[in-house]
Amino acid sequence: MKYIQGSVGQILLLLLALVGIGISVYLTIIHYEHIPPVCSNTGLVDCARVLSSEYSVVPGTSIPITVPGLGWCLVSAGLAVLGLRLIIQPYWLRLAQLLWSLAAIAAVLYLVYAELVRLHTICLWCTILHVIIVIMFLITLVRLPQPAAELELEPEAETLEPEKPLASTLPDQ
Q: The pTM is what?
């Protein structure tokens, strides 16, 4: 039962990463195919303006910022799958997930700054992905201090009958 409880966080991380992969793939496709995004293009929410701005590409390149975002989501999904495959979810894995999501938080802060302060508009798809990253960060933050024993499958030895005292196992003299 504890294995299932410990896996809930990994399952949530995996599902969120998969949604992030879907959004990143969609935004990458519309970048290269020059397709208008399915999103508002007036007022505060203007995906087309954000996705065609100088902030929509990796600085100094023509690579859309969604490509590193896709890579981040793929690694996050891989870490979650690894967490699901391990019976004991070790501290190093939880720390790696936390640090990985913290790196994404730094990118999110920069991109939100670019959207709100520089462009005065936001992209709905980007915002959804930013919220996903914040949720993933919070999940990894909450899970970090948990001892591995709380996240592992109970050993079978604990469910067996207790051993008889040594004196009762000796033959009668």
A: 0.80
